[in-house]
């Protein structure tokens, strides 16, 4: 998100609405990623304060937030442990982000971003199965160069890397600190070294529209994680498949109404587990849409929607030495709706209220994480207050209460029925509280 904090560069060849539209497209990307990987939502920080451009032409932004989530329910995660025993969990997460944006010469805009964080996660799954992890998260660094010298077209190239500063391998009962990714912001705590590149371009259409197209490829490095059997198993070596994606986005302004839409297709190559071919995860399709209406300078209402569909996986069958598409889709469809309203009551104070609805239509299995994600519906309601301390800094506090209804699950059929793995319908409730701030130089 912070990479969209732009230096104000005016060019007569650019449509009047172009800078506004260009600055909004990052939010579409953020929502795509957040739906595809639930933990990624935790890395979308609060909006930066109004940018202040220093005499050197560079803008620097520091952004951080402390978030605390607590939940309780009839069972922990995974749900088939400690049957009939109530469970609870909590997570304290502090993301940190630093961004720098400026001009190199007169025609190249350079955007640099570094993002990391700290997380403390606890889960009491019942029956004495207690997990606790306190660690740094992985660190993400990126650099984006955009060419501004061609009227009507702005090509860009981005390079990004995931640095494994977190913890993928959890010893003993620490593994029980991993929670349902639909309940907490950071369900896992690290993976390998990933390196990716994105090539794309911004194309203005008339005075009020902007299209963006891009192609990305990410190489995901191998990492070692804890065994599936924490009571004496061996560590597991995972070599995730590389992913290639294409994205098309469109933004349009009609008076007080801003519309945005995006579609992304992602293909992932074969994943190896302990050196052997294991699975090709299904192709993923993601759709997002946003409509924001400015009623007057004090009131803005925003509606966002995001949908993700993943095709069935292809599992490697050793007996025939080839991949075969699974008989049933072990992935799921996910739909998220959110409505926000912001009310600026004074030049310094802005109040907000929001509601969101999330639905996962079926139970899903993530083979690279050895993790089942239950089907569920989640409703959340909350509010926020933002105080503009100075033109270049702000503080925001948020509170959210959520309710989760989880569907029942029959015994798992994984090459045969696994007795005792069925789960009845469950309900969870929880709170998320946060305090954050940002400052721009």
TrEMBL record:
Keywords, A to Z, come to:
Signal
Protein origin, superkingdom: Bacteria
The positions making up the signal sequence are 1-41
Q: What is this protein called?
A: Porin
């Amino acid at each position: 998100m912070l990479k969209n904090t732009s230096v104000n560069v005016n060019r007569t060849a650019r449509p009047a609405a172009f800078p506004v539209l260009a600055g909004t497209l990052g939010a579409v990307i953020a929502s795509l990623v957040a739906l595809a990987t639930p933990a990624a939502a935790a890395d979308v920080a609060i909006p930066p304060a109004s940018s202040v451009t220093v005499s050197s032409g560079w803008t620097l932004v520091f952004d951080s937030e402390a978030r605390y989530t607590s939940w309780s329910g009839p069972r922990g995660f995974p749900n088939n442990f400690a049957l009939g025993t109530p469970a609870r969990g909590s997570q304290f997460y502090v993301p940190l982000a630093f961004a720098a944006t400026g001009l190199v010469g007169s025609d190249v805009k350079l955007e640099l971003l570094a993002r990391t964080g700290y997380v403390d996660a606890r889960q009491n799954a019942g029956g004495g199965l207690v997990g606790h992890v306190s660690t740094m998260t992985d660190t993400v660094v990126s650099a984006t160069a955009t060419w501004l010298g061609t009227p009507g077209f702005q090509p860009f190239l981005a390079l990004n890397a995931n640095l494994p500063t977190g913890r993928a391998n959890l010893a003993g009962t620490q593994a029980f600190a991993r929670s349902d990714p639909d309940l907490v912001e950071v369900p896992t705590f690290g993976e390998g070294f990933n390196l990716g590149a994105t090539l794309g371009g911004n194309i203005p259409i008339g005075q009020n529209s902007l299209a963006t197209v891009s192609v990305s490829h990410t190489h995901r490095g191998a990492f070692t994680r804890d065994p599936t059997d924490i009571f004496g198993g061996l560590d597991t070596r995972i070599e995730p498949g590389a992913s290639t994606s294409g994205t098309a986005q469109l933004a349009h302004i009609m008076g007080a109404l801003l519309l945005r839409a995006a579609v992304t297709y992602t293909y992932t190559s074969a994943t190896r587990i302990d050196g052997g071919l294991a699975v090709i995860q299904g192709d993923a399709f993601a759709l997002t849409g946003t409509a924001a209406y400015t009623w007057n300078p004090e009131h803005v209402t925003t509606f966002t929607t995001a949908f993700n569909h993943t095709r069935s996986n292809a599992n490697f069958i050793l007996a025939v030495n080839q991949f075969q598409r699974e008989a049933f889709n072990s992935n799921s469809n996910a739909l998220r709706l959110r409505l926000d309203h912001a009310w600026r009551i004074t030049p310094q104070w802005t109040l907000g209220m929001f509601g969101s609805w999330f639905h996962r239509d079926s139970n899903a299995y993530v083979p690279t994480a050895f993790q089942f994600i239950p089907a569920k519906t989640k409703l959340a309601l909350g509010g926020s207050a933002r105080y503009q301390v100075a033109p270049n800094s702000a503080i925001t506090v948020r509170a959210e209460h959520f309710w989760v209804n989880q569907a029942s699950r029959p015994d798992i059929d994984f090459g045969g029925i696994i007795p005792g793995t069925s789960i009845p319908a469950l309900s969870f409730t929880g709170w998320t509280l946060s305090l954050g701030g940002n400052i721009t130089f």
